Amino acid sequence: MKKIGFIGIGNMGGAILSGYAQSGKTGHNQLLAFDMNSELCEKTKEEISQLTICESGRQLCEKSDIVVLGVKPQVIESVMKEIAPAYTDEKTVISMAAGVSMEFVERYLGNDAAVIRIMPNTPAKVGEAMVAICRNGNVDDDVFNLAESLFSVIGRAEFVEERLMDCVIGVSGSSPAYTYMYIEALIEAAVKNGMDAETARIFAAQSVLGAAKMVLESPESVEQLRINVCSPNGTTIEAVNKLFENGFMEDVKEGFQAAVDRSIEMGSEKQ
């Protein structure tokens, strides 16, 4: 049995906590949480009956075997200073703060600290997260496997080298926002052509969901999947040609790169 504590249970931390609690796979593990927003703590406690609310981040660290930091990069330093006196080397700290390296965490907890770094995304709320995960040399296999199972129940967890974490932010951490923009544009275009907004929302979202599933399950390349939909002189090829003409793919790549560059910049601010 492990005591798993969450410091910061807002959008991302809360999504992971709720997803794990509702997965039915917590076993005998105990769940603890702390957030500066006391109303949020009360609400989350109502939703997760087995949750223990702590009075501070330090108290949570004292009581937990695994501490999940769901706080923003802007406040990670103050949180590290708070929990450092309560940290001991048999505990594991998991950080999801964008641009914050494992070395930064070690700076406060010591070189022998067991640190895992993750980069999840908000579809954790519906059990479809993509979580990148890496560890330093102080994390043993048992704890790392537990961490992987923790994040696998809210979607999919894959190991990546830490040097790729900035890239992960561009391709999955931030990309739900780009995808929502695409769906939003489809809805607006459908409404303009006479469909009601709610029906358009269902048609657009289900089509994106299905296309994504095809990418994950088909042995064909993404390019070939696109070609397969485009009949000569048909409707789809007209749309695709217009998107190419307007630089759709280059716009997406530039957006991706902007997210990556900002992650690198945020990391340099923590040096």
TrEMBL record:
The protein's enzyme class: oxidoreductase
Pfam families documented for this protein: F420_oxidored (PF03807), P5CR_dimer (PF14748)
Database matches in InterPro entries: 6-PGluconate_DH-like_C_sf (IPR008927), NAD(P)-bd_dom_sf (IPR036291), P5C_Rdtase_cat_N (IPR028939), P5CR_dimer (IPR029036), Pyrroline-COOH_reductase (IPR000304)
Keywords (A to Z) from UniProt: Amino-acid biosynthesis, Cytoplasm, NADP, Oxidoreductase, Proline biosynthesis
GO BP field: L-proline biosynthetic process
Localization (cell): Cytoplasm
Domain Pyrroline-5-carboxylate reductase dimerisation: 162-266
Residue sites binding NADP(+) per the record: I7, G8, I9, G10, N11, M12
Enzymatic reactions: L-proline + NAD(+) = (S)-1-pyrroline-5-carboxylate + NADH + 2 H(+); L-proline + NADP(+) = (S)-1-pyrroline-5-carboxylate + NADPH + 2 H(+)
Chain segments annotated as transmembrane: none
Role summary: Catalyzes the reduction of 1-pyrroline-5-carboxylate (PCA) to L-proline.
Protein name: Pyrroline-5-carboxylate reductase
UniProt organism field: Lentihominibacter hominis
